[in-house]
Amino acid sequence: MAATEPPSAAGAASNAGLTAFYRDMTDPERHTFWACFGGWALDGMDFMIYPLVLSSVMALWQVSKGSAGLAVTLTLIASAFGGWVAGYLSDRIGRVRTLQITILWFSFFSLLCAFAQTFGQLILARALLGFGFGGEWAAGAVLMGETIRAEYRGRAVGSVQSGWAVGWGGALLAQAVLFTLLPGETAWRAMFALGAAPALLVFYLRRHVREPEIAAAARARQAARGEQPAIWEIFAPGVVRTTALASLLATGAQGGYYAITAWLPTFLKTERHLSVVGSTGYLALLILGSFAGYLVGAWLADRIGRRRMFIVFSAGALLLIIAYTQLGISNDAMLALGFPLGFFASGYFSGMGPFLTELFPTRLRGSAQGFTYNFGRGFGALFPALVGYVSQAMLLSVAITVFAVIAYGIMLAAALMLPETRGRRLDTDYGFA
Hints:
CATH topology: Growth Hormone, Chain: A
Mean pLDDT: 82
Number of helices: 20
Radius of gyration: 20 Å
CATH superfamily: MFS general substrate transporter like domains
CATH architecture: Up-down Bundle
């Protein structure tokens, strides 16, 4: 599983600009790019709605911080199972078909959240939403990774990741509008109803996006030989070490991100005493920083390599969250730090999709990528709940910092033990597709 880095691929990629990949794209590559960008943006909007309405939900049903954090955790645990299942299905029935199924699934359950009459019903609907939410990333990331050429894969797949910030921004805009126009007990329901919007993307997928040739050819060969990859094959000798380390990398990356983003709106309201509308500017700068971080991280993933990018961004995120929550700075200083915090706490995700795509052979790629990334989601999902429960005995800001330190430490250790994959060509580096 050693990495290869042909000078012709890696060198050309490192000297090209951030947008060079888009100018050189074929029509099928562009269609796939925009379909996955839209899917990830709407995915991000659906997920971030809950943290934005969390204080309203807690007040409506008298929910404790621990229980509120548990809802985030259950959503992410369900997404872990959904990602593994969807990844396996994408190896069996195709990337595009699996992507369509997962989008329809999480759109339906987001709409169902709007009609919840108890907190228990909301938790159940969110958990079922998470199953499709995790599956969408697994199918979409593999689809993008296999469609885009090796020299542009980091930038293209990473740029798609920036769609998350666009979706987060859409959710924040919806919050500002709906909580201004509607009473709080109605506004949060309207926000969940907006989560059904991704279902419209399926029409675009059916018309414009086709299966990657490398994946279709691999499934045809398997069918001709009467072979199908087993769901447990990612734990076979020769693969299991990579599976384990990639899972730890994803755990640290997502544990740190969710520990911060799931509770930041509540931190601004309870410890900094900002209103829902008053905190919008702080969160807007955080989101703008996230968008910039995704794009720069995508460029750096091709320029300096996936591993170095992970190390730089996770270290930056760790230092900034300590400054943001522990230094007792003024609200104006916090406002200024929002952009770099969003930049570093999000940008490393740009390397995750291409890195996991390049670590595994085609016949196992969907299953392996779905499992490892969503294993990280499942265990990273514990962090919001742990922050919520621990914050009942200490300040919320301290709890956020403690679990961010643990998460980013795990991420750094895993990144140091995994190989560099920049420039790896999927159809040749394993001797088979």
